[in-house]
Amino acid sequence: MTVKLNSATFFGVDAIPVNVEVFITHGVPGTMIVGLPDSSTREAKDRVVAAIKNSKFEYPVRKITINLSPADIRKAGTSLDLPLAVGILISAGLLRCRVALENYIMAGELSLTGGLNKIKSIIALGILAKKLNKCLLIPSKNKRVASLLGVDFHSFDSLSGVCEFIEGKKSAPETVDELPDNPVTLIPPCPDLMDIKGHEFAKRALEVAVSGRHNILFSGPPGSGKTMLAQAAQGIMPGLSVRESIETSNIYSFSRKRTAGEEDDLFISKRPFISVHHSITTAGLIGGGGNNPVPGDISLAHNGILFIDEFSELSKKTLDSLRQPLQDGVVNLSRSRFSAIIPCDFMLIAAMNPCDCGYYGDKARECECSPADIFRFYKKLSGPVLDRIDMFVEVYSVPAGMLMENTSIEGSAEVGERVLKTRKFQEERLIAGGFNEKYNSRLNESGLEKHINITKSALSFYNEACKKLDISSRGYFRTLKVARTVADMEGREAVQEDSILEALNYKKTRLMK
């Protein structure tokens, strides 16, 4: 008798459907698994034998052939243990099936005692089940996260519990229709804008950048407050939507960069803030791996912020690897053995010194670099990457007399409320216009032409300014997007000259020309 069960394997950040086919016949006793299983899947034979025997069943002493299809995709992980065991029991006639198993996707790792251990990447499995309109059979230890996904599921502690359900001795699947508003929340410590002395222009620029989710670069001398400004962006970012929370949590479930003691099924509702050291490798930044790609830091920053300090110190190869992800919001990983697409739709905040000594253009201290040194310094930066950054802000040192003064008028809470209001305003405008995006920064050229709504005088002023400033075609549209965000912050339907002028103030500084 041949038995066919639904399960899944994982590749990149996706769950891929797998059919587990079990055939038992006469011949030399033994169990053979075919269909490109990796070592952890091949080892399942020993776990399955022990689990079946310890669940009060007799393991069939016959020739057992198990096919994992499609056979040209490598099967990795331990989540196939459960369907292997169930398939053997049904095929051997030891288990009477009284439910329509074609409507279920089962996954679970078996212990030698017959218990079910937690599996990783349960979110991807839930997304697949929702897409295929099927119910999940999973370990009880994955129940908390499964209950947040809005899918039908039934959870079990052991193989014997699954067998009771298949024989009709268990109740119907548990269903949760909606994700709670506040799943597990990660709140990293961040400075309040009230604590940042001075830098009113930089704070305004940061608010504009976060409101429209524009990429921004801070340039200034050491200790001027660039990093503190970047970290403060966390405090004015709105929370994740349900869809964004599921997307981000799914990526983290595949990451190997968890901190010690962090749960595998951590559900994220706070926008991530990933701080990248300038010594990071290209693979560490964009992702990669052996036979199965893992997300890099740009994917861990999906729906959040990627902060790169000492931006000019990144290797040119690593810096250039940001070109396509910044443009498309996904990273295409193509290797000799695999090709994968991983989401990485993030807001980039970069910070750098203006020269090797760090004081070129500073009002308080004289620069020690020669013109040749400064030329070599900016030669390291990638022009195409800089062209994908919307806003450039110079951050100067704050005079000593202001450091102990309470000069800040607003804190992160007040600014965050305005950011949320602006984002709602632009999202409603974009959706009403038939554009399936939430941020001005994600508008393409045709979408921008439809939604820019710029006055004739402002457009004429802008075109003249672009001729004098020698702005590229990409920069032309990116500056218009910033101007659209500035107008949204004021609640205006039309982009006027003052919005264009402010957007032009955020173009490349004199230090980068």
Summarize the structure.
By secondary structure, the chain is α/β, with parallel strands linked by helices. The protein has helices at residues 39-42, 44-54, 81-91, 122-132, 143-146, 159-166, 200-212, 226-232, 242-253, 282-286, 297-300, 316-320, 323-328, 371-379, 383-386, 412-432, 445-451, 456-469, 473-489, 497-505; strands at 2-11, 14-25, 30-34, 63-69, 104-106, 109-110, 116-117, 135-139, 152-156, 174-175, 216-219, 273-276, 287-288, 294-295, 305-308, 330-334, 339-343, 347-352, 391-394. It folds into two domains: 2-175, Ribosomal Protein S5, domain 2; 193-512, Rossmann fold (3-Layer(aba) Sandwich).
How many separate domains make up the residues?
Answer: 2
User: What's the total helix number?
Assistant: 20
User: Biggest sheet, open or closed, and with what strands and sense?
Assistant: 5 strands, parallel
CATH class of the largest domain: Alpha Beta
**What is the general shape?**
elongated
Unreliable runs, pLDDT <50, ≥5 residues?
175-187, 259-264
Give the C-alpha Rg. Answer: 28 Å
The CATH homologous superfamily of the largest domain is called P-loop containing nucleotide triphosphate hydrolases
Helix content: 25-40%
Which band does the percent of strand residues land in?
A: 15-25%
Which architecture of the largest domain would the CATH scheme give at its second level? Answer: 3-Layer(aba) Sandwich
- What name does CATH use for the topology of the largest domain? Rossmann fold
Structural class estimated from helices and strands: alpha/beta
